[in-house]
Write a structure and sequence with these properties.
The complex is a heterodimer of chains A (about 170) and B (about 270).
Chain A lengths: L2 H19 L2 H17 L10 H19 L7 H5 L10 H13 L3 H11 L5 H8 L3 H19 L13
Helix pairs in contact in A: 1-2, 1-3, 2-3, 3-7, 6-8, 7-8
Chain B lengths: L7 H8 L5 H13 L1 H21 L9 H5 L21 H24 L7 H18 L9 E2 L3 H12 L14 E9 L4 E8 L5 E7 L11 E5 L2 E8 L2 E7 L3 H17 L1
Antiparallel strand pairs in B: 1-2, 2-3, 3-4, 4-7, 5-6, 6-7
Helix pairs in contact in B: 1-3, 5-6
Classes of the chains: A mainly alpha (about 170), B alpha+beta (about 270).
Chain lengths: ~170, ~270
């Protein structure tokens, strides 16, 4: 772990944090915390192992800690309930904007898995390792997240009794 | 109707391009006969694309200085998570605070060195290059206030820094090499004040000269070179002074400037 390899990972960490949190300042704070914790523990990193997965794991744990402490300002779902996005087929741009607000409506653990897969293009096994969850949990969260996102995008907000096909 | 036993997991793996060619062909055959699944897969593919389209631009955004600084390993004990809320100041102040802790942390290495005093002198000098590089990455990217006192008040700057360091210090003149003095500032060292002079060339490339008196009584060294992340550092100990010249430029170019600095200081 040296400066150049860290530098190479930074843009992706920032992109993921931005997608995860939505807010730019909060995302960069999370990246900063991640780097600080990584440096303080870098003796634990085995050279030759996957630095990216290790950093994502640290970021994930920090986020879990933050959520547990309740220190983060999070969007309430109720606030957004009034503006359910409608499906945009005419303009890609509209669809892109829709997906941002739709992503905010996913539970954290589903958004996290979906972003690791869709944005970071991690394999399912890598996601499981980085987040410290079983592969089966990765698949079920991915399936739920995608389906929920699809329903939101189609203007059919998911209901509590949403049946997830596995 | 499902000879390959296509599962929901296969559909996701298809969306993510994680299937073998054979399995992929199987899923495609399945989708051809199951329009609802095909619609779902299409929607998931669109999600992937939309997510990347939305967030990929973040990859090209310039890195904030505070993150860039963290690509260099801070000295030990830079972070004490519990103290963080107190340090919720401006990002730069946070960094400066971290810098202070980093330098205090350096004392640990210094004390450890005392145990094998007779051996490598290099161990003595490494903290100097590291401190100088950290100070360089903290202050040189600062567009508005890279220095505390600007070069148009050079006389006041020299007087102030000399007084604080307790000995005359002068910024060398590097105009002939294309670097003009921007100004200087006072920094905390291991046990007292340290001076930093900042220079800039026509393209805006910045270079800092870090001057410490904490090497008084320590053996003199010749030029030493260190690479600290993106920053190249030449440093040496001369008399009671330790000097470190840092910049994100090629080693050869930096060596030229370092030689000029050395010659000027020697002549004084």
């Amino acid at each position: 772990m040296d400066s150049r390899t860290i530098l190479a990972e930074l843009p992706r960490l920032r992109r993921y944090a931005r997608a995860m949190l939505g807010d730019r300042a909060a995302a960069d704070d999370l990246v900063q915390d991640t780097l600080e914790r990584a440096w303080s523990r870098f003796a634990q990193w085995r050279p030759g192992s996957d630095l990216r997965a290790w950093l994502f794991g640290i970021m994930h744990n920090l986020r879990v800690d933050q959520l547990r402490r309740g220190g983060l300002s999070t969007h309430s779902l109720d606030e957004e309930a009034g503006e359910v996005p409608t499906r945009a087929t005419q303009a890609d741009r509209l669809e892109v904007m829709d997906i941002e607000s739709a992503l905010r409506q996913l539970p954290d653990e589903q958004r996290e898995v979906l972003l690791c897969v869709a944005l970071e293009e991690m394999s399912y096994a890598e996601v499981a390792a980085a987040l410290g969850i079983p592969l089966g949990t990765v698949m079920s969260r991915l399936a739920r997240g995608r389906e929920r996102l699809r329903l939101i995008m189609e203007g059919r907000p998911p209901t509590a009794n949403l049946r997830v096909v596995r | 109707m499902n000879p390959l036993n296509i599962t929901d997991d296969d559909l996701h793996a298809y969306v993510d391009g994680a299937l073998t060619a054979e399995r992929r062909a199987g899923v495609e055959a399945w989708l051809a006969g199951h329009p609802e699944d095909a619609e779902r897969v299409r929607a998931y593919q669109a999600q992937n694309l939309a997510i990347r389209t939305l967030f990929d631009p973040v990859l090209d955004e310039p890195l904030p200085d505070n993150l860039h600084a963290l690509t260099v390993q801070p000295m030990k004990a830079t972070v004490d998570a519990k103290k963080r809320p107190i340090l919720k100041l401006l990002p730069l102040q946070r960094l400066a605070a971290g810098l202070l802790v980093a330098m205090v942390g350096g004392i640990g290495g210094w004390l450890a060195h005392g145990q094998y005093q007779s051996s490598e002198r290099l161990a003595l000098a490494v903290p100097l290059s590291r401190q100088a590089a950290v100070a360089h990455v903290v202050y040189s990217p600062d567009a508005r206030r890279p220095v505390e006192v600007t070069a148009d008040q050079e006389e006041a700057l020299v007087k102030w820094l000399s007084k604080r360091l307790g000995t005359p210090v002068h910024p060398p003149k590097l105009g002939a090499l294309g670097y003009e003095l921007v100004g200087g500032r006072l920094l905390p060292g291991h046990a007292g004040p340290v001076a930093q002079f900042m220079y800039q060339d026509g393209s805006g490339q910045r270079m800092t000269l870090y001057v410490t008196t904490e090497n008084a009584g320590k053996p003199e060294t010749g030029f030493r070179f260190a690479r600290e992340g993106q920053v190249n550092v030449f440093y040496w100990v001369e008399g009671k002074f330790g000097y470190a010249l840092s910049a994100g430029i090629a080693k050869g170019e930096l060596a030229k400037v370092a030689t000029a600095v050395y010659d000027q200081l020697e002549a004084k």
